[in-house]
Amino acid sequence: MLGHLQSSKDNYGQKMEIDMLTGKRCQCVVCGEVFSTEKNFDKHRKGDYDNRYFVDPAEVGLQVRETDKGNYWVVPAPEGMSWR
Fold first, then answer.
1. N- to C-terminal Cα separation, the chain
2. Residues 6+ apart with CB under 8 A from 17
3. Rounded CA separation 53/14 (Å)
């Protein structure tokens, strides 16, 4: 998984997720990938409700944005620009 939450151990040795699902970010419960917006999440969902499947976010033109709190999928920045 490229767009994912970082994890660490809590005081009891249990794995926990670092909360980065703020603003419009959302996480796919099937593949675990994290997306910058619901629209980007929807890009990787295919098929109708009864025949839903998921594709690799890179196949639908999304790119990974790396942060110190984890990675998530975004649309590419316009040419000559970069996301902060």
1. 22
2. 5, 6, 7
3. 31
Beta 45-46 vs 34-35: how paired, if at all?
unpaired
**Nearest-angstrom CA–CA distance, 72 and 84:** 13
Radius of gyration of the chain (CA): 14
d(CA 48, CA 78): 31
CB 9 within 8 A of CB 18: no
The pTM (predicted TM-score) of the whole model is: 0.67
What does the pLDDT read at residue 61?
Answer: 93
pLDDT top residue among 83 and 66: 66
pLDDT confidence bin for 60, thresholds 50/70/90: very high
